[in-house]
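User: Fold this; tokens only.

Assistant: Input:
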Amino acid sequence: MTQTPQRPLRVLAAMSGGVDSAVAAARAAEAGHDVTGVHLALSANPQSFRTGARGCCTIEDSRDARRAADVIGIPFYVWDLAERFREDVVEDFIAEYEAGRTPNPCLRCNEKIKFAALLDKAIALGFDAVCTGHYATVVTGPDGTRELHRASDMAKDQSYVLGVLDERQLAHAMFPLGDTLTTKDEIRAEAERRDLAVAKKPDSHDICFIADGDTQGFLAARLGSAEGDIVDESGAKVGTHEGAHGFTIGQRKGLRIGHPAPDGKPRYVLDISPVDNTVTVGPVAALDVTALTAIRPRWCGGTAPVGPGAYTAQLRAHGDETAVTAELIDGTLHVSFAEVVRGVAPGQAIVLYDGTRVVGSATIATTARRAGALAG
């Protein structure tokens, strides 16, 4: 299979204001494509988004993107997708936490904004592809089908957050950095050679729409406070909280339990029950997961696999791969782990791989734990 595309295309380059997307746009233009840069305005009040090293969608970022486009020599626009972002990403994030689940807003943004709202608008305007600074690779087979593969450099691979893309979206996706066997320092050096002022700009981190990085405060301001019980595995009350939405499975810090466990060891969040506003805590071993079910599967560039299969799975954006057996049964993905894993929370995404190829992504619904441990 070969990486695509090779022929000159009309390309819309999504420029966040960071170094990766700027270099990606520059490479696309250098390859002979007809490139137009676009920055997505995702907040009705850009000052409420993170700035400096911790942002990606601020006024500062749009200006950085514009300056990069000027240096590259491509047209540049700012598109207002704030309302769509609020509905599809921010409100979804809040609703998932309210339901006791742990969402990944970056996956949601890729699925609903960058490769849905943005892509649909790009195609309507006659563009052939959307270019981003993600580290992943699209390849095409002899029959014209597309596949998403890991980046050449595993240290920078971002295929996990792109596992929600389908065949149509992959057909219009371009990732110029995906086959780059270079360090981030070398990407920055390339940006400097190209006279891009973002060469030394720090990377963005965490959640762009939470201005101060305080996720619990952000959720509390929107969902309110509701005192509830913190209980142990036996159901005995060991503390109180001000809202179950402020916790995630596997959390250790910030539990504010008044007295230690009988064995003196740390306790972790094992379960979150929005129905009765209860948070259950226990020993780390109780987080051991042997299997899970996942819903809303999306097959990345292909059709659903038939029957059980052996794959590797990734459960976090920067997590390790683990061997699994997976099978789709009546629209639900059933996954068994070769070795136990920890800290798996409903709402997270599981992405399946066959070698370097991304098979698909699904949202974790339930987990099965070792005998005697609390089920998720």
